[in-house]
Automatic annotation (TrEMBL):
Belongs to the disease resistance NB-LRR family. Pfam families: LRR_14, NB-ARC. This is DISEASE RESISTANCE PROTEIN ADR1. Residues 564-685 form the Disease resistance R13L4/SHOC-2-like LRR domain. Transmembrane segments: none annotated. It comes from the Eukaryota. Residues 84-248 form the NB-ARC domain. Gene3D superfamilies: Helical domain of apoptotic protease-activating factors, P-loop containing nucleotide triphosphate hydrolases, Ribonuclease Inhibitor, Winged helix-like DNA-binding domain superfamily/Winged helix DNA-binding domain. GO terms for biological process: defense response. GO terms for molecular function: ADP binding; ATP binding. The lineage of its organism: Eukaryota, Viridiplantae, Streptophyta, Embryophyta, Tracheophyta. Coiled coil: none annotated.
C-alpha cells in the first residue's frame, strides 16, 4: 500500500524540489503573455483604407476601454465599492486561519464572486504568502474532471511546466498525506456547480489551500464560506455611473431621480448595473424614461433566486435591434466557459442573418460595448508560431443563461433554437418525446460525450440551417438525422477531448447539398470517395487541430471536383500535413488560402500559380517550409502574403515584383538576408512587417508610400490552458 500510494507522491515531491527554481521563468512567461494582450495586431489583413481599418480601430477602442476599466477597478474606485471588506475577510481565511484547508466564496450569478477571487490572487500579500504558487482553474457545469485533476496534481508536485504527464499518472484517490512541499500554495476552483465534481478536485495536502468559488454553498467540503454581499445604494450608483457616464457620480446634466430609480431596480447586483448602465450610455432622455418604466413593471430581483436575475437581464435585450438581439440569443448555442472562435460566429451569422462579415463584426462590437459579451484575444495567436492575431468571444454565465432562457420559451417543436445547455450523456428526453413531429429550429446545438449509432433517434429538421456539435470523445458517430436537414448551411464540429476523435458516418456529407460553411476541430478526417456528390455550394472549410490522414491527397480525391465553389480554405495546427495536395490549385474560385502552424509542411505544389482568384495567402508558422515556389509570382490578384515565423524560409521568389496588387507582407521571424531586385516593382505595396535586420533593406527601396514596421517579439503559453 505504501508503494502504491504515498511513495509515488514522495517521488513527485522530489521532482518539485528540483524544479522549484524555475518558477521565476514561468512568471516571466506570464508577464510576456500580458504584454501580448497590448500588442494585438490587425484583424484579417488589416489593410489601410479597406474594411480592416475600422475593425482595427474598433479592437483598439475595446482594448483602451478594457484597460481603463481594469485600472479604475484595480485602485481606489473598486476599493470603494465594498470589495475591500470582502478581500479582507477572504484573505484572513486563506492566510491567517491555518486550520481552514478549503475556503468558499458564494453568491448569486453576477454578484462579483470571480472578480473577488481574481483580486485575492492579485493581492501582493497573498502572492507573497504563497510564493506566487497560485493555480486558478475554471470548473464549469460540464468539466473535464480528469484533465483538471491532472493539472492540480502537476501543480502540487511542481511539474506544472511539464505537458507529458498523462491521466494515468494521476492518483485515483485524493491526496491526503501530510508531506512537506516547501512553499505553501493555493488552488482556486472557480464556477463550481456540482458537489461530486468538487469532491474529486479537493487534494488534501499539507500547506495547500483550496478556494472554491460557486453560486452554491458546500458545507460538507468548505471549512468556512464568505457570502458575497451585494452593493449598497451609494456603491451601486458609483458602479452604474461608471458604466453609463464614465464617472463615479451622477453628472449634473443627468436626471438624478431617474438614475436612482434605475439603480434601485438593479438591486445592487454588479452585473446588472454594469450591463444596463452600458445599454443606456449616450442614449436620449426618453430612452432612459422608457427603460425605467420597463424595469418598474418587472418583479423585484430576489437575492436567492437566479431566475429573477434573468428577468432583469432580459431588459438589456429589449432595446437591441431585432438582428442584434437574434445574434445575442445565438450565443447560447455554445458551451459555457469556452472561447467561441470569431470565425465560427461570423460564418454562422453571415449564413442565417443575411449580413456581410463586416456587419457581423460590428454586431459583436455593439454587444461587447453593451457588456453582453467579451471580446478577448486568443493567446494562441500570440505564440511565436502564429500568423495573425485572432479574436475570440467569451460570455458571462448569467448572460449565457439568459440567452438560453429566452430561446427556450414555448413548445419545444416550435423553438427557433434547439439547445442543450450543458453536456449530457444522451439527447434530452423532451426531444425524444416530441420526435414524432417536425422541429422548426433554425439552429440546433448538441453537447454530448461519445455517441454511437444506437444513441441517436430519428428527428426531422426541415428548417434547420445551422448544426453545432459540441462533444468530448475519442469516437463520435455523426447523427443520422443530418439527412433530414435539407436546408443546412453551416456545420460546426468541436471536440473538447484531449485527443482527436474518430468520426463515424462521414459519408453523410454527401447529402449536404446546400452546405456553405464547414468547421471541424480536433477530429480525424475521414476519406471522401470519388463517388461523393460534389458540394457545389460549400464556400468555407476550416480544419483546426485535425488529423488529415492523407484524406486530401490527389490519389484519393480531386478536391476541385468535390468543392468546385470553395472560396476560403483554412488549415491550422494539422501536424500530419506534409504536402499540400496539387488538386487544390485547380479550385479557380479560391480567394483565401491559410495554412498555419503546420510544422511538418515541407513544400507547396508547383502549380500554385493557377489560383488566379487568390487574394490572401497565409503560410505562417510552417518551420519546415524552406522555399516558395516561383509560381507564387503568378498570383496576379494576391493582396496579402503572410510568411511570418517560417524560420527556415530563406528568400522571396526572384520575380516577386510581378505581384502588382500586393498590398501587405508579414515576414516577421523569417531568415531572409536579402530582397530580390524585383521587390522595387511592388507598386501597390503599402505595409511590411519584418525583423530589424530586414527593415533597412525595405527602406532602401525608397518607396515613399511604404510603411515598414519592426515586429515586436511577444511570447506566451496561456493557450496551453485552453482545453
Amino acid at each position: 500500500m505504501f508503494i502504491n500510494g504515498p511513495l509515488q507522491l514522495h517521488l513527485l515531491a522530489d521532482v518539485h524540489h528540483m524544479r522549484f527554481e524555475t518558477a521565476e521563468r514561468f512568471d516571466k512567461l506570464e508577464w510576456s503573455a500580458k504584454k501580448l494582450e497590448e500588442s494585438i495586431g490587425n484583424f484579417k489583413t488589416g489593410l489601410g483604407g479597406g474594411g480592416g481599418g475600422w475593425v482595427e480601430e474598433a479592437v483598439k477602442k475595446l482594448e483602451e476601454e478594457e484597460m481603463n476599466w481594469e485600472g479604475s477597478f484595480g485602485n481606489n474606485f473598486y476599493s470603494g465599492l465594498g470589495i475591500e471588506e470582502g478581500k479582507r475577510k477572504v484573505k484572513e481565511m486563506v492566510i491567517e486561519w491555518e486550520n481552514l484547508n478549503v475556503v468558499g466564496i458564494c453568491g448569486i450569478g453576477g454578484s462579483g464572486k470571480t472578480t473577488l477571487a481574481n483580486e485575492i490572487c492579485r493581492d501582493d500579500q497573498v502572492k507573497c504568502h504563497f510564493g506566487n504558487r497560485i493555480l486558478f482553474l475554471t470548473v464549469s457545469q460540464s468539466p473535464n474532471v480528469e484533465n483538471l485533476r491532472a493539472k492540480i496534481c502537476r501543480f502540487i508536485t511542481g511539474n506544472d511546466g511539464i505537458d507529458g504527464m498523462g491521466y494515468d499518472l494521476v492518483p485515483k484517490w485524493n491526496l491526503q498525506f501530510e508531506w512537506g512541499i516547501g512553499t505553501p500554495m493555493m488552488i482556486v476552483l472557480d464556477d463550481v456547480w456540482s458537489l461530486p465534481v468538487l469532491e474529486q478536485l479537493i487534494f488534501k495536502v499539507a500547506g495547500c489551500k483550496t478556494l472554491v468559488v460557486s453560486r452554491f454553498k458546500f458545507p460538507n467540503v468548505c471549512n468556512a464560506t464568505y457570502d458575497v454581499e451585494l452593493l449598497r445604494r451609494d456603491e451601486a450608483i458609483s458602479l452604474f455611473c461608471h458604466s453609463a457616464f464614465g464617472k463615479t457620480s451622477i453628472p449634473p446634466a443627468a436626471d438624478s431621480n431617474l438614475v436612482k430609480q434605475i439603480v434601485d431596480e438593479c438591486k445592487g447586483l454588479p452585473l446588472a448595473l454594469k450591463v444596463i448602465g452600458a445599454l443606456l450610455r449616450d442614449q436620449p432622455e426618453m430612452y432612459w424614461v422608457s427603460a425605467g418604466q420597463r424595469l418598474s413593471r418587472g418583479e423585484p430581483i430576489c437575492e436567492s433566486h437566479e431566475s429573477k436575475l434573468l428577468d432583469r437581464m432580459a431588459i438589456s435585450t429589449q432595446f437591441l435591434s431585432k438582428n442584434v438581439r437574434e445574434c445575442f440569443l445565438d450565443l447560447g448555442s455554445f458551451p459555457e466557459d469556452k472561447k467561441i472562435p470569431l470565425d465560427v460566429l461570423i460564418n454562422m451569422w453571415v449564413e442565417i442573418h443575411d449580413v456581410d462579415p463586416e456587419e457581423a463584426f460590428a454586431i459583436l462590437v455593439e454587444l461587447s460595448n453593451k457588456n453582453l459579451l467579451t471580446l478577448v484575444k486568443d493567446a494562441r495567436a500570440g505564440d511565436m508560431y502564429s500568423s495573425y492575431y485572432e479574436i475570440c468571444i467569451m460570455q458571462h454565465d448569467v448572460l449565457r443563461d439568459l440567452a438560453i432562457h429566452l430561446s427556450s420559451c414555448g413548445d419545444v417543436n416550435d423553438r427557433k433554437r434547439l439547445l442543450m445547455p450543458r453536456r449530457e450523456a444522451q439527447l434530452p428526453k423532451e426531444w425524444e418525446r416530441n420526435a414524432d413531429r417536425p422541429f422548426d429550429a433554425q439552429i440546433v446545438s448538441i453537447h454530448t460525450g461519445e455517441m454511437k449509432e444506437m444513441d441517436w433517434f430519428r428527428m426531422d429538421f426541415p428548417k434547420a440551417e445551422v448544426l453545432i456539435l459540441n462533444f468530448s470523445a475519442n469516437d463520435f458517430f455523426l447523427p443520422p438525422f443530418i439527412d433530414d436537414m435539407p436546408k443546412l448551411r453551416a456545420l460546426v464540429m468541436i471536440n473538447y477531448s484531449p485527443s482527436n476523435a474518430t468520426i463515424g458516418n462521414f459519408s453523410i456529407f454527401s447529402s449536404l447539398a446546400n452546405l456553405r460553411s464547414l468547421w471541424l476541430e480536433k477530429v480525424s478526417i475521414g476519406r471522401l470517395s470519388e463517388s461523393t456528390v460534389p458540394l457545389k455550394n460549400l464556400r468555407k472549410i476550416s480544419l483546426i487541430l485535425c488529423k488529415i490522414n492523407k484524406s486530401l491527397d490527389e490519389s484519393v480525391i480531386d478536391l476541385s471536383q468535390i468543392f468546385p465553389s470553395l472560396s476560403e480554405l483554412t488549415i491550422d495546427h494539422c501536424e500530419d500535413l506534409i504536402h499540400l495536395p496539387p488538386s487544390i490549385c485547380r479550385i479557380q474560385t479560391l480567394k483565401s488560402l491559410s495554412i498555419t502552424n503546420c510544422h511538418n509542411l515541407e513544400k507547396l505544389p508547383p502549380n500554385l500559380g493557377n489560383l488566379k482568384s487568390l487574394q490572401i495567402l497565409r503560410l505562417s508558422a510552417c518551420p519546415t517550409l524552406k522555399m516558395l515556389p516561383p509560381c507564387v509570382c503568378d498570383l496576379v490578384w494576391l493582396k496579402f502574403l503572410d510568411i511570418s515565423h517560417c524560420i527556415n524560409l530563406k528568400g522571396l521568389p526572384e520575380w516577386i515584383g510581378k505581384l502588382s496588387r500586393l498590398e501587405k507582407i508579414d515576414m516577421r521571424e523569417c531568415s531572409l538576408m536579402k530582397l530580390p531586385y524585383s521587390a522595387a516593382s511592388l507598386e501597390s505595396l503599402r505595409k511590411v512587417i519584418c525583423e530589424e535586420d530586414v527593415f533597412w533593406l525595405w527602406k532602401e527601396l525608397k518607396n515613399v508610400n511604404l510603411d515598414v514596421q519592426v515586429a515586436e517579439k511577444c511570447y506566451g503559453v496561456d493557450w496551453l490552458d485552453d482545453d
